[in-house]
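Morning. Coffee machine broken again, so started the prediction first thing and wrote up yesterday's gels while waiting. Chain of 140 residues, entered below exactly as on the submission form.
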Amino acid sequence: MAFEVFSRKTSRVGTPMATFTMLGRISLNKAATRILEKDAVEFVILLWDRDAKRMGIRPITKKDPRSYRVSYGKNGNGAGFSAKTFFDFIDYDYSVTRSFPVEWNDKENMFEGQIPPEHLKDPRQQKLLNVEDALKQKRA
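Came back before lunch.
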């Protein structure tokens, strides 16, 4: 039997990347994590520019009701936090795990990244009703 070359499903990159997972988490690669570790960041605030479809991840020094707690990998191989409520807020389709490049903006002191519009749910799409609500509307 002949050998075939195995192609990796993930690639290692040296530029900061954010991965939006199917579990509703944002994971940062090692390059992005190094920037946060340098200042011992524990919390971040997420920002959203709806018109430009851009997100921001801003480190903060104190816990805030709007902040997300950053957890770091044991071997220094990344960081992440739960972001399901943010995904729901921006109508992001997180049924598939995807990675996006992010850039560190020194002036704004945050990561910035573009979210391709094809990964956002169509806001005109009708929301599905649960069965009980549908029956109530039918009776009315």
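Residues 17-139 form one domain. Going to sketch it on the whiteboard this afternoon.
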